Amino acid sequence: MKSCPGGEFAVGSKVAALMGGLGRTINGSYAEYTRANVGGVVEIESSLPWEELAALPESYATAWTCLFRNLELTAGQTLLVRGATSSFGIAALNLAVEAGAKVIATTRSRDRFKKLEDLGVYRAELEGPELSTRIAEAKHIDAVLDLVGNSVILDSLRILRRGGRACLAGWLGGLAPIKEFNPLLQMASGVYLTFFGSFVFGTPGFPLSDVPLQEIAKKVEQGKFQAKPSRVFRFEDIRETHRLMEANEANGKLVVKL
């Protein structure tokens, strides 16, 4: 089995999670055999079905690193997750709530508020332009995990308290360039902007072994964390997976079984 861009393969009775740009900076997402940097491989013991394991590393390893490395999130802090109903967003919510953070989550539809509340968020907000002018906690937020991307990152920076951190890690709103970004005029003094992309896993600074994937997999097994893919496809139906992604209709992780 492979997933794009992460993946798993069997090693005896165990499973190895494979990351580090597979399918992007490294060819091989749909290959029968491929090579990976040893720093991008970690062993996991789990009874989860292959389909759930395939959906786990890309979302959870990335979310964990964004939250606890880039944002340095700690218990009691207030975190805003923009684009929270994506699979990446759900992983971040699970991790942040369990860590004791006060989490505010955004989504484009009020119909999804209940889903977010069931995950333990403090409050759900409608995602949209100028959220900084509508959110009550503006200038008191400790951290923002921005999965909407370039179209709202400047607004995310305006939400932070002095010393707060924003991590840009997703582009649900598209990859159009940030317009007229002038830090001297548009960034408040004392706030921090950072970026994370999962393609760095396996490099010396970001070994996959740094992420507690074994513990995360256990919590998925126990039903504490969500990691089920939205849909599972046969390899023969691979064109449909790409059509859904390009049409922004994936609604979660798509897994392809070889």
Range of strand content: 15-25%
How many individual β-strands?
A: 12
In helices, the fraction of residues equals 25-40%
What does the largest sheet look like?
Answer: 6 strands, parallel
Instruction: State the end-to-end CA separation.
Output: 5 Å
- CATH homologous superfamily heading of the largest domain: NAD(P)-binding Rossmann-like Domain
The global form is globular
List key phrases describing it:
258 residues; alpha/beta; Quinone Oxidoreductase, Chain A, domain 1; Rossmann fold; 2 domains; six-stranded parallel beta sheet; three-stranded mixed beta sheet; 7 helices; 12 strands; 26% helix; globular
Polypeptide structure, described:
The chain is an alpha/beta fold and 258 residues long. It folds into two domains: 2-61 and 201-257, Quinone Oxidoreductase, Chain A, domain 1; 73-197, Rossmann fold, CATH 3.40.50.720. It is built from seven helices and twelve strands. The protein has helices spanning 50-70, 87-98, 113-118, 153-159, 183-186, 213-221, 238-246, and strands at residues 2-3, 7-11, 14-18, 41-44, 78-82, 102-107, 123-126, 141-146, 160-168, 192-195, 231-234, 254-257. The chain has a six-stranded parallel beta sheet with strand order 7-6-5-8-9-10. Helix 1 (50-70) packs across helix 2 (87-98). The longest helix has 21 residues, at 50-70.
